[in-house]
Amino acid sequence: MNRIVAGRLAGGLLCLGALAVRADDRLDFHVLGSIAPSCDLVADRIRIDLGAVAAGELAGAGAISPWRGAAFSGRDCIGATRAVVTMRATPYPGHPGLIAPVGEATGVAIEMRSASGQPLPPDGSTAVEFSWTGGPPELGFQARYVRVGPLQPGTAGATAQVQIRWE
Fold first, then answer.
1. Are 103 and 145 in contact (CB under 8 A)?
2. Which residue among 35, 65, 99, 155 is least packed, with the fewest CB closer than 10 Å?
3. Does the keyword Signal apply (predicted)?
4. Going by C-beta distance under 8 Å and a sequence separation of 6 or more, which residues neighbour residue 14?
5. 111 Cβ contact list (under 8 Å, min separation 6)
């Protein structure tokens, strides 16, 4: 039967000089870490429906549609009173703060922001912050179309990845 003694193996056979165990041998452990705040989300996807916007409502370059919104809802939050959120999506060429839509429509991009009005570009590094004092959090977002060039009607949607850091 073998056993570990102060970090060294001592066997049933004793070989003098081959395995020395001293009374002052010791092994120190340093354990590091932390417990991070956390929240679960009610749903891991939200959909912002921009609806059918008439081409006439986007009459010229810079014209915008109304903001439409949706929110992620948190639950089972432990120690979290703040969330820092970034978004990554394909930027519209020449307009890095806007998202390039997928579909038949051309000449439009999608602009995102938090429900409180903080711009949320698709760069994956610009953060918006949410805070709450009690109860489950709601991370609200809004989107709208922005005309950026000659307009061709059709579908125009996008998908973005959101990263949330709970604090």
1. no
2. 35
3. yes
4. none
5. 64, 97, 98, 99, 119, 143, 144, 145, 146
- How many C-beta atoms lie closer than 10 Å to residue 25's C-beta? 11
Contacts of 164 (CB under 8 A, 6+ apart): 39, 72, 83, 84, 85, 139
Q: Beta partners for 117? A: none
pLDDT tens per residue across span 24-69: 778 888 899 999 888 999 999 999 999 999 999 999 999 999 999 9
| CA triple 89-41-114, angle to 5 deg | 45
- For the stretch 61-99, pLDDT in tens is 999 999 999 999 999 999 999 999 999 999 999 999 999
Q: Which residues contact 70 (CB under 8 A, 6 or more apart)?
A: 46, 47, 48, 49, 140, 141
Percentage with pLDDT > 90 across the chain? 77
Q: Is 32 exposed, middle or buried (0-12, 13-18, 19+ CB in 10 A)?
A: exposed
